Amino acid sequence: MYRLTPALRHYDWGSTTAIPEILGRAADGRAVAEAWFGAHAQGSSLVEHRDFPTLTLSQVVATDPRGLLGDDVVERFGAELPFLLKLIAPVAPLSLQVHPSLEQAAVGWVREERSGVSAHDPGRTYRDTNHKPEMLYALTTFEALSGFRTPRRAIEIFAGLEAPLIANTIERLRYGHSAQGVRSAFEYVLLGARDRDADVDDVVEQIARRLQEGSSPSLHADEIALEIAREHPGDRGVLASLLLNPVTLRPGEAMFVPAGAVHAYVSGVGVEVMASSDNVVRAAMTRKHVDARALLDIVDVRPAPPIRLAPEHARTGVEVFYAPVEDFELAVITVTGPDVPVAIDGGGPRIVLAIEGELEICLGDRVETLSRGSAMFLADGEDPVVRGHGRLVRAGVP
Questions:
Q1: What global pTM score does this model have?
Q2: Looking at the domain 316-396, which fold is it?
């Protein structure tokens, strides 16, 4: 059982205060977009332990993979922690992005390795060979875009917006069956008619006007489009966003994003758990490396609603969000008093992160205090109990 110090990511879309506040640290004016609790090579947590004063979690796991991860996890995933837990706090829209499948990641990584692109090169697309399905659990109201609308609904959103880019997008949405129409329209919005880039600003003005007049077919979609336009003026992601489903998660709600699902987080604070990967293929709305053609090669264009997950009530004080993948699951554990301890079971390696209150985690004679933002790594076979008043999340392997 090891206490963890997260690796911080200072991306410019992050809040300057939300994550420092959760971690109990003073804000220093820098944006803190993410805090990583895990053992990913691009940002492993530090371990706070007298036996390992300067080691990362990935280094500690390497000392005894089977003892810390368990035979079952090593046999299925190899000698590495298969999941990554994050705090995420966007105050501006993230990039329009897709995560690859296992096969797509392996092929992309080999291709870039053979081309000689460094793993740390900002122009690199594939950082590792893993897929990156992910689950988001909202701590505050969280706004996002996820998956494609049906062509019929997208045409309703575009109706009344007058510009050649829009007219041609609507024409493509009507082409063939729904997935064909979506692919044709999405590709055109991202890459077609480069001489019509000025249409984006014209459409933004029309969206603002119809919002003001109260004639918008979707207040939510138009508000997000204007938010993207403020952060990324002239970016075609503004138009692409109108093809996607807007999502609002209330605190305590969760959403799953599978490989191939186009999405963008917009604002809020949440906990993410995902396969241990940093593979992000971006097409718009970012200053980072964009590879729209690669995204179009792997995106799932079938119209579908966002995948909201309902928790399963496992036992008193424990609700589990099961994702349709083998890499991770997320449990939310609520503790209501010092005399009502709750077991942190699950088996295999786990990371627990306190998100509310003051808690104590007890393993044999060892007692560790967990205040909000504190995290612990639990090895296979370690089944402590938690007591106090508050909540924590437990990421683990199904």
A1: 0.95
A2: Jelly Rolls (2.60.120)
